[in-house]
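Weekly sync, protein design subgroup
Attendees: M.S., D.O., the rotation student, P.L. (late)

Item 1: inverse folding check
M.S. brought a backbone from last month's batch and wanted to see whether the design step gives back something sensible before we order anything. D.O. pointed out we never logged the input encoding, so this time it goes straight into the notes. Structure tokens as presented (143 positions):
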């Protein structure tokens, strides 16, 4: 079980490192496979096929790993900052892209309880092809 203090720069740095390492591992594991999803951290060179279709300003959650299955999108205009947003009953997310410009914490718990797994991803652009747990809720944070 991981415990993180929400909004800390240490957690964001650690999560950015993990996201970057996941992208590197995915790229090294399948360098010659056309059409294979590969995670990319924030920045240029991202293609829609490689990292899921998620527009700037959105948090996108997919029901299956590697940006597959049903996609849910959330935007700042319809999401309260620092409030727990529970995914619809019976749905979970296995991959995500955070393009909101704000850090987001995903939770294994449907009520954002810190007794289960949770991780914070940077808001500058984070693509997570395989969450280490089924995401059931999230919180968007101030910068």
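Designed sequence read out in the meeting:
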């Amino acid at each position: 079980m991981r415990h993180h203090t929400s909004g800390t720069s240490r957690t964001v740095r650690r999560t950015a490192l993990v996201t970057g390492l996941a992208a590197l591992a995915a790229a090294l594991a399948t360098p010659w496979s056309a059409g294979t999803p590969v995670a990319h951290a924030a920045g240029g060179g991202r293609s829609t096929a490689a990292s899921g279709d998620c527009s700037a300003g959105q948090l996108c959650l997919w029901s299956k790993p590697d940006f597959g299955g049903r996609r849910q999108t959330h935007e700042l205009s319809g999401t309260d900052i620092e409030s727990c947003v529970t995914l619809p009953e019976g749905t979970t997310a296995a991959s995500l892209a955070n393009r909101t410009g704000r850090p987001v914490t995903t939770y294994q718990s449907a009520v954002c309880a810190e007794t289960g797994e949770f991780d914070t991803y940077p808001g500058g652009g984070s693509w997570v092809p395989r969450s280490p747990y089924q995401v059931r809720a999230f919180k968007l944070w101030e910068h």
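Discussion: The CA atoms of residues 8 and 90 lie 31 Å apart. The chain has one domain: 9-27+58-140.
Action: P.L. to compare against the previous round before Friday.
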